[in-house]
Design a protein that fits this description.
CATH topology of the largest domain: Beta Polymerase, domain 2
Order of helices and strands: HHEEHHEEHHEHHHHHHHHH
Strand content: 5-15%
Shape: globular
Radius of gyration: 19 Å
Strand order of the largest sheet: 3-4-2-1-5
Number of helices: 15
Largest sheet: 5 strands, mixed
Length: 291
Amino acid sequence: MPNSLLSLVTAELGAPADPRAAAMAGALAAQYPQAARAVLFYGSCLREANLDGLMLDFYLIVSDYPSAYGQSWLARANRLIPPNVFPFEHQGLIAKYAVLSEADFARLNSVGADNVSVWARFAQPSRLLWAADAMARQRAIAAVAQAAPTLLSLARPMTGEGDALALWKAGFTLTYNAELRAEKKGRSLSIVDADPDRYRRFGEAALAQGLPPSPADAARRWRGLQRRGKYLSVVRLAKASFTYAGGIDYLAWKINRHAQTAIVIKPWQRRWPLLGAVTLLPRLFLGGAIR
């Protein structure tokens, strides 16, 4: 009998990761001693053998936003436009981390989420590198286990294919159209092609257990996700200009890395990062660096 999806997710989240990334996760959790519940490592760096010079990606899951920030405006910002994103350094490595409450992490991995940003990422491989206790670990695993069924459920009405890999590819193509992405065209398909065995196993397990009900009008649902996703991308960019030190430089770095452009941030854009970030958008759309 094939493994259940939950057992596959549990094994993948618990698989070994670079010890330096694990140490970084522990150090990150220690910055939020009253609130930290789990730290997940995800993204392209998960596949890299040498992390030096790379920007690692983490999600910090907290009990709630007031426990993480007190009564500051950051708690309100994280609740109204999740997640907040911050830079972090530890033992020569650099990272960015997004903060979500346990409740928001579960909600944004589910089929009822109003945007794709969380479940599209956690349908891909990730590692649970730190958990406060057994309950925190269990909740994080349960939330991540929703991501693949969410993607496949929303993708299935949009394609006539029943094959698991075809559904994954259709789903990732749709999610890439629902955000401002710096990756080149075809990146969504290469995710599956890089590890087809993993996606076939996870897809077949999700299909075997039964997917959440697909929306009655899937095309309309995706149009809504695409409109909201691109709107949220701009709003989060604006918010990051206040919460993320050097946010505009990170934006340029990410776009240059994924789209092979050569954007150089000017001094005035650093002085007024929100205005500088907004002025980049027309150039990036026209040049196809983001879509």
